[in-house]
Fold this protein.
Amino acid sequence: MGFAKLFSRVAPVALSALVLTVGSAFAKEFRLGLITPPPHIWTKAAGDFGEELSSASGGEHTVTVFPSRQLGNEAQMMQQLQTGALDMAFLTIAEVSNRVPDFGALYAPYMANDIGHAGRILRSDTAKDLLNSLPQKAGVVGLGYGMAGLRQIVSRDPIETAGDLSGKKLRITPFEPIKDFYNSVGAAPTPMPLPAVYDALANGQVDAIDMDAELIWKLKYYDHADTILVSNHMMFPMVGLVSAKVWKGLSKEDREMISTIMAKHLDGVIDTYVEKEAGWLKDVEGTGKTVREVDATFFESAIGDWENTWSEKAPALTDLRKVAEDTK
Ligand code: BEZ
């Protein structure tokens, strides 16, 4: 018996009960976690993704966004994704690279010449192919990349040469590739989550920080700095993740809908940084602080040291370098 025929034989009251049951079997209230605060570009993109998913599914699916580490830090959210306690997250690749070292290749110093180039690398098939290993290696499904621009250095003291960073306590996001980079530079990399950074720089707990242009400007990290080094030394990719356990329970149609809509909003994040990064750096320059532009030569042998370590730890580096060359 077909669906229409089955429905025509069911009494109206029974029919509405059946529709409710069928509807609720597929409806899902997804929870999405991230560490960035509500006004941040990543958080806004998460909200926009949720709204579009809700309207595309006729209100069947909703997404509640938990910003500002409400569900824990990224390592904790990754664990929750693995157990299925959390449905979705927008996480830095930093956290992912702690579990799947091949993602460390995305932090190769000066792989991207500028922010537009970073966007082209992240949109390449080679970068996207890296996501295929995530279900097996990390228990999560990666649906696309966003980013937070390129990394810069904010220092309490004047910085003329890389030697001036020697022995300095320099705040980093907690992950291995950046730690190795600053160890090679001769600094003392100090892992620290975002909410602790402003006070740590203000009270001298750290001498310098590794940060992106947006937050240097919007969170006023320049307040307690003498010098902002516009070094553009690394990309800072983000990834949209769904718990592999949750993913398994979704229909093909739902998976397609979620993939398409999330990838669209992640891609929009890349567009936003490409469009706005230069403006934030100009704004920082307008504060009258010393803003010094440096390139790969500033870091001397540190870049070669990093390549030696990470070409072994992250074999994807070879193919990504080729992509970088082809998309210059
Ligand atoms: C950071 O750790 O520096 C960071 C994390 C998420 C977004 C932007 C910056």
The first strand starts at residue 28 and ends at 33. The beta strands are 28-33, 61-66, 88-92, 140-155, 169-172, 188-191, 208-212, 227-230, 235-243, 290-293.
